[in-house]
Amino acid sequence: MSALDTAPAASVATADQGHKRRSFDIGGAILTLVTVIFAVLWAFPIYWGVITSLKPESQVISRTVEFLPRTWTIDAYWHVLVNTMIGRWYINSLVTSVSVTVLTLIISATTAYALSQLRFPGRTVIWYLILASFMVPIAALIVNHFILMAQFGLINNWLGVILPQLIHPVVIIVYKNFFDSVPKEYREAAKMDSASEWRIFSRIYVPMNWGVTTALAIVTFIGAWNNFLWPFLAVSRTEMMNVAVGITQVNDAFGVQYARELAAAILAALVVAILYLIFQRRVTQAIMLSAGVKG
Amino acid sequence: MIRNHRREVVAAYLFILPFVLSYGVLFFWPTLQMIYLSFTDAPLIGPGQWIGLENYIEMFDDRRFWTAVRNTSYFVALTVIPNTLIGLAIAMMVSRLKGWQQSVILAMFFLPYILPVSVVYRIWNWMFNVQFGIMQYPLTWIFGEPTPVFRVQWMFMPTVAFVTIWWTCGFNILLFLAGLRSIPSDIYEAAALDNANRWTIFRRITWPLIWPVTALVLTIQLILQLKIFDQVYLFVQGGRPDPSMVMVQYIYNMAFQRNEGGYAAAIAVALFAIVIVFSVLQFQLLRSRGEK
């Protein structure tokens, strides 16, 4: 890791020398220009969605392309906020996504600690079960998840949305890797003080890996917030939907009102988009981590 | 010493208790139930009769099942390799930039990835709108008239694939960026001393050294795209779902719309088997990467 501190300095130095040799790097400049144009085109649909949602409906359906609204308005947003259950959907999304995140992290961290630090009969079997479940497509289980949740009476219920989303073997695997790399001395010292396993776990292993926990929390939360298939199946009552599912209902209520449809979509994306823009580096790191790549 | 070990075992079981309960009830049990259900004629909710392999035999003669398999494979073919190559290309463009410029450009490429699928659907449905969509300008130029891309059969899957690549490419870009950063810069410096051009540097250095990441991205993509449902389901709304039906959608269709739980479970088992075959490949790949 210490190499990281010196490496950029070295590359800056060589880049400077390179500039002196070649007076002007035309190929490089063109590449940069292409990159910028491509990035603008790539982000354009999002910009276009936002801009459209800020236009009055009459200008939305104008035949000329207007990259900025002639009249700015948040009417569409007011309409969505007042006339749909989006507030309720937001609460549903928040409650279910936070619960999925917290429960997944608790289940995964405790399991990973046991697998990483404790010897007990059945340890290898459980480890292989986890590696195997890593490969199973949860999407194939929708039928039986539905049957199970119906048996528990949890259809159209927060718990019914939450429970089937708790299966994230990757989180266990990532935690185990990090717990494995905590130096054994800490544990031995704590043992000498006859600390309980729970104390060692909660006072040493968890605090030492806060970075991993934050990263995994971000990824799990975004995943749960954006999840469509299961919340879509587990809920049929409009007031129990989460935002990602709820906004697909908006058109039925209004007929075709493009600004309103898009305003509902922008509102649905807002929380995660803002979270991403604030914690950009953390999110990037977190996603690399969850794919098994240390960024 | 033995007392100590017993305490450790008890502690361990307490630690794995949440796992055993949650994975047992929500994962292993439904998996076994799915396999059992596939041998019965049960409706979605309620008991059924054991009918042996009948569902599977029916499946092999079911034209709609094979359409779903074909459409899923077509979608996989349209997304996996293009998404990987575009991801690599963008990552190489982004990695040339430094500091805040890199952050801004990366954010522009990555932002779609964090959108819920229904938001992606809303945005692109508007972009491609037949009357007012901005994409009708290039489409009219190509086809001579405004084109409802989600209603024209042969355009449906490629357009959904295009939108999917736009939506998910950010993830691939990140993995490739991490891979590009781990290539030691002195290799490039040595190449620069030899006056190697960009193409030679890419072919001789970047491509071979990034290959493990490319293989990883390819397999992740493959498994991910086999499970396609959301986009196809959303974009086909208002049209005929049958011709563009994909596997998960067929499971959904059979179980939730036709109330044939047993048959839906049989299709799920088939999907399960396909994904597991590819996952085992991915796992081998990851492991061989880990050992290096």
Automatic annotation (TrEMBL), chain A:
Transmembrane segments: 26-48, 89-115, 127-152, 158-179, 200-225, 262-279
Pfam families: BPD_transp_1 (PF00528)
Keywords from the named record: Cell membrane, Membrane, Sugar transport, Transmembrane, Transmembrane helix, Transport
Gene3D superfamilies xrefs: MetI-like (1.10.3720.10)
The keyword Acetylation belongs to this UniProt entry's keyword annotation: no
Subcellular localization, as worded in the UniProt entry: Cell membrane
Source organism phylogeny: Bacteria, Pseudomonadati, Pseudomonadota, Alphaproteobacteria, Hyphomicrobiales
Listed InterPro entries: MetI-like, MetI-like_sf
Topology term for the membrane: Multi-pass membrane protein
Family, per entry: Belongs to the binding-protein-dependent transport system permease family.
Tree of life domain: Bacteria
Record's protein name: Multiple sugar transport system permease protein
Gene Ontology CC: plasma membrane
Domain ABC transmembrane type-1, first and last residues per copy: 90-279
GO BP field: transmembrane transport
Automatic annotation (TrEMBL), chain B:
ABC transmembrane type-1 domain ranges (all copies): 69-282
Mode of membrane association: Multi-pass membrane protein
Positions of transmembrane segments: 12-29, 74-92, 104-124, 155-178, 205-224, 263-286
GO terms classed as biological process: transmembrane transport
Keyword Secreted: no
Keyword 4Fe-4S attributed: no
Superkingdom as given in the UniProt entry: Bacteria
Keywords: Cell membrane, Membrane, Sugar transport, Transmembrane, Transmembrane helix, Transport
Chief subcellular location: membrane
Subcellular localization(s) per the UniProt record: Cell membrane
GO cellular component: plasma membrane
Family: Belongs to the binding-protein-dependent transport system permease family.
Protein name: Multiple sugar transport system permease protein
